[in-house]
Amino acid sequence: MPHESIINEEGEHVVLPQHRHHFETAEQQREAGSFGMWLFLLTEIMFFGGLFFAYLLYRNWYYPAFAVASNQLNVPEGAANTAILITSGFFMALGVWAAEVRKKKLLVVMLVLTTVFGVAFLGVKADEYHEKYEKHHIPGASYSTAMFTNPAAYGINEQPLAPDMAQHTEIFFFLYFAMTGMHAFHMIIGIVLLFWLTWRAHRGEFSSGYVAPIENFGLYWHFVDIVWLFLFPLLYLINRHLPK
Amino acid sequence: MAHEISHDQAHDPSNVTNPEHGEHHIVSPIQYCMVFGTLLVFTAITVGAAYVDMGAFNPVIALGIACFKAVVVILFFMHVKYQSRLIKLTVGAGFFTFIVLVTMTLLDYMSRAWGMW
Questions:
Q1: Which of A23, A71, A144, B10 has the highest local Cβ count within 10 Å?
Q2: Which of residues 99-158 of A touch B (CB under 8 A)?
Q3: CA-nearest residue of chain B to A40?
């Protein structure tokens, strides 16, 4: 295990720039960093947890509205986005490996690929949001329940909902936009950080044994992946199985 | 000097002698490829399963697969399998607290006028 702090010939404690003096060893510093990052991610679990709880509650209360509203989401695009995000996370994991084995060019390539797939995810998401806009499924003044009270008029093979239950589809779409929007916001922050980290990696900052920023950013990026792994089945796949 | 740790102490993967110092384990690219493949396969399974009528078990299967994928990501992509007990306990405590909060809030809603407003 290479230590970033070394003892020179005179017996002096020589510390490399990235090693903070208040840590005894590089391992301890690394451990403290990971621990801090995980504490932050726990607050993120609680933050998204509130949204997931709201979803759980309203889905149980207004199940018929949630079932038909969910059927209006675009499963091929959602599934493709899941694969895109997993691919992005895979390249991020390889980036952490590249930093650990000190391959500078490979690290930069992996960070760029992580970014490219992250942007692709947001592109697909934007297309889905546009589809919601066209269908008047964005909650607010122009929201329309017409597709749910009179599905036959739109060529939708679905049982019509009573007007009061149809109103509750707006809650589904509110939660859809709140949850996927907050997830997309996390991705945008991540992509900004990726630009910064790629630039620093290009300068060789993470290919001489100091991998903590790459590793801790990786934790954040994978966490955002995990949120989507739950959002996709919960929002898109509620009611695909029932005979129409 | 305090920072000099003998090799035996430093090599302590299960953190028995040195609980807050985790060994830096490097996960290999082959392992990452296997995790990547697993995640893609289970994404396909979750989409396929959604179109099969399993009654009340549809959401159970969907959540089960999502939990499995999340655990795989946490253990391997996020290296928790190779971290110290401190990190493992921290991660576990976070999810445990989340479950407690959801259960208690849900009990509160269910014990009142369920769905009446």
A1: A71
A2: 100-101
A3: B94
**Which domains does chain A carry?**
26-236 (1.20.120.80)
Q: Do B66 and A100 touch (CB under 8 A)?
A: no
pTM of this prediction? 0.88
B56 min Cα distance to partner chain A (Å): 11
- Interchain contact B108–A (C-beta under 8 A): no
Q: Determine the Cα–Cα distance for residues B66 and A154; give it in Å rounded to an integer.
A: 33
**Mutation choice for B interface testing from A90, A168, A239 by most B CBs within 10 A:** A90
Q: Is residue A192 within 8 Å of residue A175, measured between CB atoms?
A: no
Could you tell me the residue ranges of all domains in chain B?
27-82, 84-117
**With an 8 Å Cβ cutoff, is B113 touching chain A?**
no
Spatial CA neighbour of B97 closest among A134, A174, A38:
A38
Each residue's pLDDT expressed in tens, for chain B with a length of 117 residues:
444 444 444 555 544 555 555 567 888 999 999 999 999 999 999 999 999 999 889 999 999 999 999 999 999 999 999 999 999 999 999 999 999 999 999 999 888 877 675
Q: Please list every residue in chain A whose beta carbon sits closer than 8 Å to the beta carbon of residue B30.
A: none
Backbone dihedral region for residue A11 (phi beyond 0: left; psi -120 to 50: alpha; all else: beta): left
**What secondary structure does DSSP assign to chain A, as a single string?**
---SEEE-TTS-EEE-TTS-TTSSSHHHHHHHHHHHHHHHHHHHHHHHHHHHHHHHHHHHHTHHHHHHHHTTS-HHHHHHHHHHHHHHHHHHHHHHHHHHTT-HHHHHHHHHHHHHHHHHHHHHHHHHHHHHHHTT-SSSTT---HHHHSGGGGT--SPPPPHHHHHTHHHHHHHHHHHHHHHHHHHHHHHHHHHHHHHHHHTTTTSSS--HHHHHHHHHHHHHHHHHHHHHHHHHSSSSSS--
